[in-house]
Amino acid sequence: MFSLSRKDLTSLVVLAAIVLTMPIWLAPFGAAYPGLMQKFAIYAIFAVGFNILFGLTGYLSFGHAAFVGIGSYTAVWSFKLLTMDILPAMIFAVIISGLFALVIGYFCLRRTGIYFSILTLAFAQMCYSLAYSVLTPLTNGETGLLLAGNDPRYIDKMFGVTYGSGLPTPTFLGTTLGGYGGFYLTAIVLIVIFFISQKIFASPFGMALRGIKSNQTRMMYTGFNTKPYTLAAFVVSGMIAGLAGALLSVTDPLAGTERMRWTESGNVVLMTILGGVGTLFGPIVGAWLIKYFENIFSAINSNMLNNFFSFLPDGIQSLMVTVTSKFVGEGWHLTLGLMFVLIVVFLPGGLVEGAKRVAARFDRKKPRTGPAPAPQPAE
């Protein structure tokens, strides 16, 4: 059950080493602070889960942010009603998100292609509207669901747990989470989700999903019932998205409708395509790249650009600052859009697939130093 092939085990060890050493190798890039690294890990989890649906079945969902929001609201309600320990919050978030995914997937998977995508978008917008203006007693509407000092927390009261006069913070088995503790929690969850993704990709279930992506009609003509497989993939993907939403509430204990917007669903599509659809590492690379641009490039201002180009003559310095300022700060989306266009045109398989092609090309160019293979007699 927990065994992996040598290739998958190597991939898992490499990912674990990369994720757990992020505070070291992200420092030169100015991104080694816990809040941003937590976002890197959480959105990588979201993208890996989305890739199980989109990468294996080819079903493109524009509504997966709804499950992130559902997971966030579930986690915060767990903090308010039960306990500040994160384990019940994460478990309930996965279960509730899975139930919503089961219902939404049951209806959406009656259609394929663009019609499926539109249905998922419609359901996501309905969930957003419900959270924003209809179910305000549960979601607190535009303000968002927040913790309060007088929340009941029945399990904590049962065991005599108190949190002082300030607002409580999430804990893990009695240990307060914050800073690097929160990051390493999300990092470990990312490694576990990556392992689950590996098992799905290598399983007969994953092979069936690839067959559905390749030619669903042919599989149906052979008597293969594809509906349970696509629905299972949709539910698993929604549950992982709900887990990502719960982790967002663990690291920042609030839940708001902004996590359910259609733009968030679009972001995870971009993450997966940039990194490589259907690859194991691709969604993680795409998530890290987009979150880096969003948090680092968007913070660059004219003063920073002037300091960076200070070695140039005044006229050229002013010109460079004027040009580059359009691509950073508030204009960071322009840089992301240009990069997305270049990758789709020149590396249609994404960054990971493109790296594999480049490596294979260099490998073919290496001279063979060993003895030539002996000719085989004709049969």
UniProtKB/TrEMBL annotation:
Domain of life per record: Bacteria
Swiss-Prot/TrEMBL keywords: Cell membrane, Membrane, Transmembrane, Transmembrane helix
Segments passing through the bilayer: 12-33, 40-66, 86-107, 114-135, 183-209, 229-248, 268-293, 331-352
Keyword Membrane among UniProt keywords: yes
Membrane topology according to the record: Multi-pass membrane protein
Subcellular location: Cell membrane
InterPro entries referenced in this protein's UniProt entry, alphabetically: ABC_transp_permease (IPR001851), LivM-like (IPR043428)
UniProt xrefs under PANTHER family: ABC TRANSPORTER ATP-BINDING PROTEIN (PTHR30482:SF17), HIGH-AFFINITY BRANCHED-CHAIN AMINO ACID TRANSPORT SYSTEM PERMEASE (PTHR30482)
Identification of the protein by name: Branched-chain amino acid ABC transporter permease
Native source organism of the sequence: Aquamicrobium zhengzhouense
